[in-house]
Amino acid sequence: MSRIRVAVAGASGRMGREVVKMVLEDSGLELAAAVNRSAGLDVDAGRLVGLEPCGVMLSTDLEMALVEQKPDVLVDFTTPQSVVANTALAIRHKVRPVIGTTGFTPEDIESFDKQCKEQGIGGIIAPNFSIGAILMMKFAAQAAKYYPHLEIIEYHGDQKLDAPSGTSIKTAELISQNRQELRQGNPREEEKIEGSRGGLYNGFRIHSVRLPGVFAQQEVIFGAFGQTLKIRHDSYDRAGYMPGVNVAVKKVMELNGIVYGFEHFID
């Protein structure tokens, strides 16, 4: 069986380097291209991630890499500002997108699903590829059937560009599938400082903490008479996302259209 050829966008970023390393260490995958807009000249992708030279040099032009190297899959961990254009470019060249970057609207996802089906390819857009984080979302969605009063608190480093996180939004979406809209709290509640109660989603609140020294954590707190339930997931290293990315790269070869959310691949 031929190896899956993988291009990585954002290859010199912190997540991108982990993806490059994961691809190079999997005998079923082949690194076809490593792209970064600010890539230095004559940088071997293998050396970039602390491995032996692999012969794939960092490039700055994504479209050229897609045309010349003809990868099967594009893995994107870039920025919300560039990911939509990158995804459109991949689909146009019949390259299957596996996207870990946030920044999509529901309309974007619907449009890309249609484009993928027209091209006869699949794609995966997932706010989080951590298996532990996905289990946290699933457990929270189950708990919401019995504990409809809840709040979400997510913690990230102070350089994160979006708030709330894509993971917390996806968690809220899954919870809302099992919970009717319920306006929580005192109806006469008054915020003395605007925004102090967090963002409102389907009647419950999402709070975003941004501090240096924090990597990625999220907890869902459920409240009921005489008790609380907390479901929490903590990430400490970007390598923890790679088993999920690896699964996605292989699963996307079997898909037709866009699948939104990695939870669809965890029973």
UniProtKB/TrEMBL annotation:
GO terms assigned for molecular function: 4-hydroxy-tetrahydrodipicolinate reductase; NAD binding; NADP binding; oxidoreductase activity, acting on CH or CH2 groups, NAD or NADP as acceptor
Residues that coordinate or bind (S)-2,3,4,5-tetrahydrodipicolinate: 166-167
Protein name listed in UniProt: 4-hydroxy-tetrahydrodipicolinate reductase
GO biological process: diaminopimelate biosynthetic process; lysine biosynthetic process via diaminopimelate
Dihydrodipicolinate reductase N-terminal domain sequence ranges: 4-129
Every Dihydrodipicolinate reductase C-terminal domain range: 132-265
One Pfam family hit: DapB_C
SUPFAM superfamilies: Glyceraldehyde-3-phosphate dehydrogenase-like, C-terminal domain, NAD(P)-binding Rossmann-fold domains
Pathways per UniProt: Amino-acid biosynthesis; L-lysine biosynthesis via DAP pathway; (S)-tetrahydrodipicolinate from L-aspartate: step 4/4
Family: Belongs to the DapB family.
Subcellular location: Cytoplasm
Alphabetical keyword list: Amino-acid biosynthesis, Cytoplasm, Diaminopimelate biosynthesis, Lysine biosynthesis, NAD, NADP, Oxidoreductase
Residues that hold NADP(+) according to the record: 37
Gene name, Swiss-Prot/TrEMBL: dapB
UniProt binding sites for NAD(+): 10-15, 100-102, 126-129
GO CC entries: cytosol
Catalytic site: 156, 160
Complexes and interactors: Homotetramer.
Reaction catalysis annotation: (S)-2,3,4,5-tetrahydrodipicolinate + NADP(+) + H2O = (2S,4S)-4-hydroxy-2,3,4,5-tetrahydrodipicolinate + NADPH + H(+); (S)-2,3,4,5-tetrahydrodipicolinate + NAD(+) + H2O = (2S,4S)-4-hydroxy-2,3,4,5-tetrahydrodipicolinate + NADH + H(+)
EC number: 1.17.1.8
Function: Catalyzes the conversion of 4-hydroxy-tetrahydrodipicolinate (HTPA) to tetrahydrodipicolinate.
